[in-house]
Specification:
Distance between the termini: 26 Å
Number of helices: 11
CATH architecture of the largest domain: 3-Layer(aba) Sandwich
CATH superfamily of the largest domain: Alpha/Beta hydrolase fold, catalytic domain
CATH topology of the largest domain: Rossmann fold
Radius of gyration: 18 Å
Number of domains: 2
Oligomer: single chain
Structural class: alpha/beta
Shape: globular
Length: about 280
C-alpha cells in the first residue's frame, strides 16, 4: 500500500503508467479506487500516468471529518495536495458520479492546476439529492444521534474502513459525537442546496467559468440523468457530450439505478473516447 500524508490524513494511492500527462480518476459514492484500475490501465497505455487514490473515509485511507467545506470540496483539496506532492502540478481530473462531483469542484477551486475534465454519470435533480443525502449523511446522523461513535464504527461502511485499516477504529472513537453530527449536518445541508443547480455542487456561473476542455458521458438512470449531462455540456464552453455509451432511454423512462455491468462492459469504449479526446485537445503535462 502506497501512502501520502495529505492535510494530516494518510491517503492510499496508486500511479498507473510511468510517464506522460497526469490524469486523476475517482469512483462514485465512497467506494475504493480499485474498480477503476482496469480502465486506468487502458488509458495509461496511450502514454499517460493515471493517479488513483482512496479519498478520506474511503477504501484504505484514514477517516477524518472536516467541516470547513462540503465533503466534495474537501476531497478536491486533498487531491490537489496529493498531486502537488507527486509533482503533478497540472491534472486532467475525472470521475464517475461522486468522482465527477469531485472533479468539477477541483475545476472550481484549483483552475490553475487543471488540464481538462473527464466526467461520466453526472448527478443532478431533486430525486438524486434526496436519495443521496440520506445515503451519505442522513443515516449516519441518525446512528450517531442514537448510539454515538460506537454505532458509526458498527455501520457497514465504517466497519469496512476499520477492517481495511484497524487504526480507523481508534480515530473514529476519538471523535466527539456532537462534532461528528455537526459536520454531517453541514455536509448534508450543502448537498441539499444543490437540488436546483444544473449539477450537484456547481452553479451555472461556476460551470461557465471552466475554461479547460471537458469530455462528458451521460448516464441513463434517475440519479445520473441524461438531462444533467446535457445541461453541464451546454454550460462548460469547451465541452463535448457522448450520450450513447450506454443504453439511451427516454427522460421519463430512466433506470431506477445504474447498471454496474453495463458500465463495466462499456469501459473499453470509455477508454477510447477519453484517449481520443485527450489527443485531440493536445492536453500535455
Amino acid at each position: 500500500m502506497t501512502e501520502a500524508v495529505v492535510h494530516n490524513i494518510r491517503i492510499n494511492y496508486e500511479v498507473i503508467g510511468s510517464s506522460g500527462p497526469w490524469i486523476a480518476l475517482t469512483p462514485g459514492s465512497r467506494r475504493a479506487y480499485g474498480e477503476l484500475v482496469n480502465l486506468s490501465r487502458e488509458i495509461a497505455a496511450s502514454g499517460c500516468r493515471v493517479l488513483l487514490h482512496d479519498r478520506r473515509n474511503c477504501g484504505a485511507s484514514e477517516v477524518a471529518f472536516d467541516g470547513s467545506a462540503s465533503e466534495h470540496e474537501v476531497w478536491a483539496d486533498d487531491l490537489y495536495e496529493l498531486g502537488r506532492q507527486l509533482g503533478a502540478h497540472r491534472l486532467v481530473v475525472g470521475g464517475s458520479s461522486a468522482g465527477a462531483r469531485l472533479a468539477i469542484l477541483y475545476a472550481i477551486r484549483h483552475p490553475n492546476a487543471l488540464g481538462g475534465l473527464l466526467l461520466w454519470r453526472l448527478t443532478g435533480g431533486q430525486e438524486a439529492v434526496d436519495r443521496l443525502s440520506e445515503n451519505y449523511y442522513g443515516q449516519y446522523i441518525e446512528l450517531a444521534s442514537k448510539g454515538g461513535m460506537q454505532a458509526i464504527c458498527e455501520s457497514e461502511h465504517f466497519k469496512e474502513r476499520i477492517a481495511t485499516r484497524p487504526s480507523n477504529r481508534e480515530r473514529l472513537m476519538a471523535i466527539d459525537a456532537e462534532q461528528f453530527l455537526k459536520v454531517m449536518n453541514f455536509w448534508r445541508d450543502r448537498f441539499l442546496e444543490s437540488a436546483s443547480l444544473p449539477v450537484v455542487g456547481a452553479t451555472e456561473a461556476d460551470l461557465r467559468a471552466i475554461t479547460v476542455p471537458a469530455c462528458l458521458i451521460a448516464g441513463n438512470d434517475v440519479i445520473h440523468t441524461p438531462v444533467t449531462a446535457r445541461k453541464v455540456a451546454g454550460l462548460i464552453p469547451r465541452s463535448e457530450l457522448h450520450d450513447d455509451v450506454v443504453r439511451k432511454v427516454a427522460d421519463d423512462r430512466l433506470l431506477l439505478d445504474w447498471d454496474v455491468k453495463e458500465w463495466r462492459d462499456a469501459e473499453p469504449r470509455l477508454a477510447k473516447i477519453f484517449t481520443t479526446f485527450l489527443r485531440r485537445n493536445t492536453i500535455g503535462e
